[in-house]
Design brief:
The structure holds two protein chains of two kinds. By secondary structure, chain A is of the alpha+beta class. Chain A folds into two domains: about 100 residues, OB fold (Dihydrolipoamide Acetyltransferase, E2P); about 110 residues, 2-Layer Sandwich (60s Ribosomal Protein L30, Chain: A). Chain A has a seven-stranded mixed β-sheet. Chain A has a four-stranded mixed β-sheet with strand order 8-13-9-12, with helices on one face. Chain A has a two-stranded antiparallel ribbon with strand order 10-11. In chain B, helix 5 crosses helix 6. In chain B, strand 2 and strand 3 form a beta hairpin. Chain B is about 25% helix and about 15% strand. By secondary structure, chain B is α+β, with helices and mostly antiparallel strands. In chain B, about 55% of the residues are buried. About 5% of the residues of chain B have low confidence. Chain B starts with a helix and ends with a helix. Classes of the chains: A alpha+beta, B alpha+beta.
């Protein structure tokens, strides 16, 4: 009973650090790359900086509201905002002209170090595995690959594109007997208690798109399925349920 | 008054002298189909402010019987009509106007099918060819809805209406959207048939901008770069050639395999670049910028990303950062192109693919392919050349071009910055993909041999390089000074 009570307390504390909300993004210019921020209940949150297409963080867009699902990271403010990390960013599709705030650089507000500045890249292409990095073990046996999506989106962004390519390469290498593609749509529980549900039909569309790409990459023996009902939201792990799974069986 | 006259004469004399230094003769040669001339390995032609060089890398080319120079259809046209060496393997409005005068409008380039505003117009009148003569635009009739390779209609995400039709073609009962064969006519510039190893490079299985499969070369089965045409509708040089012969040349029979191979063989060995500037002299000089001139295009590797500071899109211009006025200006222009930061905003397939809106970057972010300045990935982008509020054409009421109203279906993703109702003079890629998000997206063009082939942009809306630079300055609020504009113009003109 005591253990259960501690669990409830821990869960409440975790939820207390979670910020899930929809608002207009704010762009803060700096001496280097711009920071992307968003306001919720009178507080400013730092989401991330401008990076490259290959980065994990893809910034929001002016002219669109953004669904922010993130956890407060203890520590100092970044770029004038409370940092959220990890954070999931979903650009909502409909145009909202009210989302148009671009703030000028301000003394004392600096962006964190950026792997790439606003000019051309200075990084030279890597010549091979990084020194000291352990060689990756080749995959074997049954493998599950997960493609994640932004809310209400079926766009296969760069990282997802890599996952599908890897899954296809693996399936072809082992001559998979079965490749099961399963599409899902999900619910996002917001901090104010509202629930945002992804549109009907999206799970099937995601699954069919992935299947089309896999076929184009030379994968056969595909089984495609989708779950029409939206996955429930818990306010903490919702972005991980906007997905397609690819299960490759030898 | 007399002093002014003397000054004018003196300046004219200097210009003529300098001009003569770098041009063996005043040369502007229109090649007619079937003329049988032999093209030398290298030739240079007058361009706006110097000479454009044309290199046949495989040596002199006899045009006798070469299908690129032979009319294969029914209207007397050959590929060369719209891809003239003297105009950088494209064709300029100055060349077309001259040709109209010389032939009294009889040259096959003015064929009713697509060299006039609409085939039903009186063909002997200049005004019936106004878009070609004023903006260098050929009519591109496209089936609506678009079709799959097997002829079945593609699913589309929007409806399209004609709201202004100055050429009469889109509302024509014979040629228009409501004709027996529903067709949308858009008007576009011919792209240069040169430097094509760069233009066709970069095919990857999945298109970064869409997350979908790239088109495949029907012959090899390999994914293609999708940068060949304004709307990426043809996957390869061979399919483009067949389509052009059946369409632009109005052939009744498909060309033979040998003819197509011969055309592609010729196109694949032609390189075009600015060769000399009227004041700056020869551009491809020992110790100078490494990417200038045609030999560099022949020799360099295709498919290399140039959005970096160690081996930039058009190489380093360090050697020209001296006291020579023209060269220093070109070098500054190269620096602006590579390093001058500004806010890229509301550009579909740039801001909308995970880079954020706005994006603080430079010209080279998008024009990133070494040697040509195209996009190394499939490069269709809506920077605002065709969608209203357009940055290049007047209002919907006074446009010389047709204006279409696009209404996106409720279940489709809208255009990222214009929403669900869009007015456009050319839906671009969307006429092929059927996707709302693609409305107004146009494939980037290569930036070589520009001085020989004005006007610019797919819709011919910029008459000069100054207007190109002004467009970007306006569109992205770059706040360029007059000096910076001059530097960028000199840089672009040197390519």
């Amino acid at each position: 009973m005591r253990r259960f009570g501690l669990f409830i307390l821990a869960a409440a504390a975790a939820l207390g650090q979670q910020r899930n909300f929809v608002s207009c993004p704010i762009v803060r210019d700096t001496k280097t790359v711009p920071c992307f921020l968003a306001e919720y209940e009178g507080e400013t949150y730092y989401l991330g900086i401008q990076q490259d297409i290959t980065a994990d963080f893809h910034p929001p867009q002016l002219k669109h509201e953004v669904l922010v699902e993130g956890r407060v990271k203890p520590g100092p403010r970044v770029c004038g905002g409370i940092p959220l990390q990890p954070v999931s960013i979903s650009v909502l599709k409909e145009v909202n002209l009210a989302c148009n705030t671009l703030l000028p650089p301000e003394p004392g507000i600096e962006a964190p170090p950026a792997p790439r500045g606003p000019g051309p890249s200075s990084r030279r292409p890597e010549g091979g595995p990084q020194a000291g990095s352990a060689p990756r073990q080749p995959l074997t046996g049954r493998q599950e690959f997960t493609v994640l999506y932004a809310f209400n989106d079926d766009y296969l962004e760069y990282a997802a594109n890599q996952v599908v390519t890897e899954a296809a390469a693996y399936a072809k290498r082992i001559g998979a007997s079965n490749v099961k593609v399963s599409g899902y749509r999900a619910t996002s529980l917001l901090s104010n208690g509202d629930r945002l549900v992804e549109k009907a039909g999206l799970a099937e569309k995601r699954a069919q798109n992935i299947a089309t790409v896999l076929r184009g990459l030379g994968v056969s023996r595909l089984v495609v399925e989708s779950k029409s009902d939206a996955e429930p939201g818990d306010g903490q792990t919702d972005p991980s349920r906007r997905r397609v799974t690819i299960v490759v069986t030898p | 008054m007399r002093r002014l006259f003397v000054i004018v004469i003196l300046i004219a004399g200097i210009v003529l002298t300098l001009s003569a230094q770098y041009q063996d003769r005043f040369k502007n040669t229109w090649i007619e189909p079937g003329s049988g001339v032999t093209l030398p390995e290298f030739d240079a032609f007058d361009s706006v402010d110097g000479t454009v060089g044309v290199l046949n890398a495989s040596g002199p080319v006899s045009t006798e019987g070469n299908p690129f120079f032979t009319a294969l259809g029914t209207n007397g046209r050959a590929c060369v009509n719209c891809h003239q060496p003297t105009y950088g393997m494209s064709v300029s409005t100055s060349g077309l106007v001259e040709r109209w005068r010389t032939t009294e409008g009889k040259d096959p380039v003015f064929a009713a099918f697509d060299g006039s505003n609409c085939p039903g117009l009186p063909q002997d009148q200049e005004k019936s060819h106004s878009l070609l003569l004023k903006r260098g635009l050929f009519r591109i009739p496209l089936s609506w809805p678009p079709k799959n390779a097997d002829g079945s209609p593609k699913p589309v995400e929007f409806t399209i209406e004609v709201v202004r039709d100055p050429t009469g073609c889109n509302t024509s009962p014979q040629y228009g959207l409501k004709s027996a064969d529903p067709t949308i006519s858009v008007y576009r510039r011919p792209r240069p048939a040169a430097n094509l190893k760069y233009v066709t490079s970069g095919g990857r299985p999945i298109v970064l901008k869409t997350g979908m499969l790239a088109d495949l070369d029907p012959e090899t089965g390999n994914p293609v770069g999708m940068n060949l045409m304004t709307d990426a509708r043809e996957p390869s040089l061979k399919t483009q050639a067949v389509s052009a012969i059946m369409g632009h040349e109005q052939a009744h029979e498909a060309p033979s395999r040998q003819q197509i191979e011969k055309i592609v063989e010729f196109e694949s060995q032609v390189y075009v670049a600015q060769q000399a500037h009227i004041f700056g002299g020869p551009l491809a000089v020992a110790g100078g910028p490494p990417a200038l001139g045609v030999a560099a295009l022949r020799d360099r590797k295709a498919g290399v990303l140039g959005d970096n500071d160690y081996d930039p899109v058009f190489g380093l211009f360090t050697a020209w950062k001296g006291n020579d006025y023209y060269r220093a200006s070109v070098a500054r222009g190269a620096d602006i192109f590579m390093f001058r930061q500004f806010w890229l905003r509301d550009a579909t397939h740039i801001n909308s693919i995970g880079l954020g809106n706005p994006l603080k970057r430079t010209c080279a972010t998008c024009h990133n392919a070494q040697m040509t300045g195209q996009d190394l990935s499939a490069g269709w982008v809506d920077v605002g050349t065709t969608n209203y509020p357009t940055w290049t054409d007047p209002s919907t009421e006074s446009s010389e071009l047709p204006v279409f109203k696009i209404t996106c279906n409720r279940d489709a993703d809208p255009h990222p910055y214009l929403g669900r109702v869009i007015y456009t003079t050319d839906p671009g890629r969307a006429l092929i993909s059927g996707r709302c998000v693609d409305v107004g997206s146009i494939v980037m063009q290569q930036l070589r041999g520009l001085s020989a082939r004005a006007p610019y942009f797919a819709n011919g809306s910029a008459k000069t390089l100054r207007e190109v630079v002004d467009f970007y300055d306006r569109r992205f609020d770059m706040k360029l000074t007059d000096q910076e504009k001059e530097d960028l113009i000199n840089f672009l003109g040197a390519l």
